[in-house]
Structures are given as structure tokens and as C-alpha cells.
Specification:
The protein is an alpha+beta fold and 187 residues long. The protein has 4 helices and 6 strands.
């Protein structure tokens, strides 16, 4: 005698699939429920950290002047990202950054002309607590931005400037993230 099994279905899904989905949701809820006060905290969220939001603490970082066009772009981008263009507050930390620029040629033709280049921007930084002039954090950041070479001089200049801007923005974002992580946990 051949026995046929009937699948119990509810809306096109088998009962087993619904049970698996329910178990998954229950497991996720249990795991995420532990992310309260003792667990993870949002870095940029509205939750206060030591009485102030991380964005407010980041606004307390003053970046020193960096020589050169790219240094100015890096500084302006960091300030904009940390304050959103708002008013500066009394600084608690000073960020000192030294940059080194270089260009690497790529896609070299047989004539020796480069069809592409890579703009390299290296930054060494120190975060100094102003109250006691103690270096509380230091590190290095690197950014690379490729650009094409053209027969037009103006196009070459413009392509390099855009690569410099991209590299400066990348380093500013990385510095903001790293410094935010520090000031969010600093007492």
C-alpha cells in the first residue's frame, strides 16, 4: 500500500518553514536584547556619552593648520565633518597632522609616457589633550586616489586636483571615525 503525505501549508509555506522562521526571530531578539547599557552603544546616535553626545565631544577637537592646498582641504573637511558647519566650542583636544604627498606613475607606455597616476597622501597625527599637553592618541592614515593622464595640460591639472580632494576627504573621514571612537570612550 502506498502512503501519500500531505503537506500542511499556511499561505504557501510549510509548517516546518514557519517554525524555523519563528525560532530565528526568537534567537535574534534574544541576542539583540543584550545590547543595552552594558553592551554596544551608538557612536553617532542621540544616546549621551558621559553627559554629551559623541558629535558634541568631537566638536571639542581643534585641528591645527596644515600647510599646502591639500592640508587646507583636509583640515576644512575634518572641521565640517566634526561640527557640521556649526559653531565651534571651546576645544579640549588639539589634533596635529603632518601630511606627505607623492605621485606614482602607472600604465607606462613604450614611449615612457604615463597614461595614469596614483596620488598618495600619508598623514601622521597626534591628538593632544590641551589641559596637560599630553598626547592621548597617535597614528597614521593613508589614502590613494588614481587619475588618468591626458594630452591636455588643463585636464591633467584638474584630474590631479580631483584626486587630491578625494584623498583628503578619505583621510578626514578616517580621522573623524578614529577620533570619535576615542572621545566617545574618554572620561
Amino acid at each position: 500500500m502506498v502512503e501519500t503525505r500531505r503537506k500542511e501549508t499556511n499561505g504557501g509555506k510549510s509548517l516546518r518553514q514557519w517554525r524555523s522562521l519563528g525560532a530565528f526571530v526568537l534567537l535574534c531578539g534574544t541576542l539583540l536584547g543584550g545590547c543595552g547599557d552594558a553592551g554596544f552603544r551608538p557612536m553617532y546616535g542621540a544616546t549621551g556619552i558621559g553627559g554629551a553626545a559623541a558629535s558634541e565631544k568631537l566638536a571639542q577637537v581643534d585641528m591645527t593648520t596644515i600647510p599646502g592646498r591639500v592640508g587646507q582641504q583636509l583640515r576644512n573637511e575634518f572641521i565640517y565633518q566634526s561640527t557640521g558647519g556649526g559653531a565651534r566650542v571651546e576645544p579640549v583636544y588639539r589634533l596635529e597632522v603632518a601630511v606627505r604627498e607623492s605621485v606614482t606613475s602607472t600604465l607606462i607606455e613604450q614611449t615612457g609616457d604615463a597614461r595614469g597616476q596614483v596620488y598618495n597622501l600619508d598623514a601622521a597625527f597626534k591628538l593632544v589633550r590641551i589641559a596637560d599637553s599630553q598626547v592621548v592618541m597617535e597614528g597614521k592614515s593613508h589614502s590613494r586616489a588614481a587619475f588618468d593622464r591626458f594630452s591636455s595640460i588643463y585636464s591633467n591639472v584638474r584630474a590631479r586636483e580631483e584626486a587630491e580632494t578625494r584623498a583628503a576627504k578619505t583621510i578626514a573621514e578616517e580621522l573623524r571615525t578614529r577620533i570619535s571612537a576615542y572621545v566617545a570612550t574618554a572620561a
